[in-house]
Structures are given as structure tokens and as C-alpha cells.
Amino acid sequence: MLNKLSMPLGILITITIFLVVGKGIAAELPPLTHKLTTLKKVINAPSLRLKNLDDEIIDIKDLKGKVVVVNFWATWCPPCRREMGSLERLHLATKDKNVVVLAVNIGEDVDTVFSFLGQVEPSPTFPMLFDPEAKSMSPWNVRGLPTTYIIDPNGTMIYRAIGGREFDHSDIQQAIIKLIKK
């Protein structure tokens, strides 16, 4: 009888330790930053033509005249997961100001992404694009995830952010809004 109880009890203790230690590890993660890197060279945004969650093609060239935030990410990437809610808050704050947020998922399927999005608060309403073969990474010079580019209304890449950001921070929002008025 003791052996029958010790197995479930051992599993319960292991899960409890994992949850307690896991919370401690999450609490020790460094804060996301709110700084953007200004690109020194004038570079036009490469082409980007991918399907969204509804299987519709989104083409960045159709967004000329708008400020476009292009975020490359994956569900397995901890800073990508952490910044997703702030991208949605940025989207909500700027969607009526000629700003478009695009999230390009690298290497995952729709089911994996859809499942993850249900866990994000607030749940993203901006377009999620899919690059299952990661073909966009090379032309966009993406060497790690997350990587984000901010494109001005003329299609020029102005800012880059490598690593997690708080995109709803006032410094980032002001930088984006200045591009609208450019």
C-alpha cells in the first residue's frame, strides 16, 4: 500500500517543486527594454509576402504610406512570448494613426501559434503571418528571435530591436508616432 501511495506522492512533490522554482526563475528574468536602435544605413524594407491566420496573403508593399512594425518571433522563444502583449497594446494605441503591426512567426504551424495566442493578455488582434520555412530571415537580416524592424511610410527601415521590448512604452510609441509625421 505504501508503494502505491509513494509514486503519486513523489510526482505531486516534484510538480510542486517545479511550480515554485519555476515562478522564482520567471521572477528573475531581466526586464524587457524600451530602446530602439536607429539604423545607420538607409535601407528599403525587403519584400514580405506571407499568409495570415485566415490563409490570406499579406504583402508589405500594400502598406506603403503607413508606419509598419514587423516583429519576427516564435512561441518557443521566451522574450518573444513576453513582448507579445505589449505589441498588442502598441497596436491598440496606434491602429487609428496609420500604424500597422505585423508578427511573422518563424517555423511553426497555425495550430501551435493559435494555441499560444489564447494564452496572451491582451490577445493579439493584429495580423499574424507565417513563414514555416524561415525564408524571410535572410533578406530581413534576422539572426535571432525576437527581431523587430520599424519601417517609415516611405518603406525605409528606420529602427531595429533585437531581443524583447516593451513596445507599449511611451519612448517607443513616441518614436513611432514621429515617423507618421515625417
**Total of helices:** 4
Radius of gyration: 19 Å
Helix content: 25-40%
Question: Which stretches are poorly predicted, pLDDT < 50 over at least 5 residues?
Answer: 9-26
DSSP summary, beta strand count: 8
CATH topology of the largest domain: Glutaredoxin
Give the SSE order as H and E letters: HEEEEHEHEEEH
Q: Which of globular, elongated, flat, extended, rod-shaped describes the shape? A: globular
Mean pLDDT comes to 88
Major sheet summary line: 8 strands, mixed
CATH hierarchy, class of the largest domain? Alpha Beta
- How many domains in all? 2
- Helix and strand composition category: alpha+beta
Alpha carbon gap, first and last residue? 75 Å
CATH level 4 superfamily of the largest domain: Glutaredoxin
Describe the 3D structure.
Helices cover 34% and strands 25% of the residues. The longest helix is centred in the first third of the chain and has 26 residues, at 2-27. It has an eight-stranded mixed sheet with strand order 1-8-7-4-5-6-2-3. The protein has helices spanning 2-27, 78-94, 110-117, 170-180; strands spanning 37-44, 49-52, 57-59, 67-73, 99-106, 128-131, 147-151, 156-162. The chain folds into two domains: 1-30; 37-180, Glutaredoxin (3-Layer(aba) Sandwich), CATH 3.40.30. The N and C termini lie far apart (75 Å).
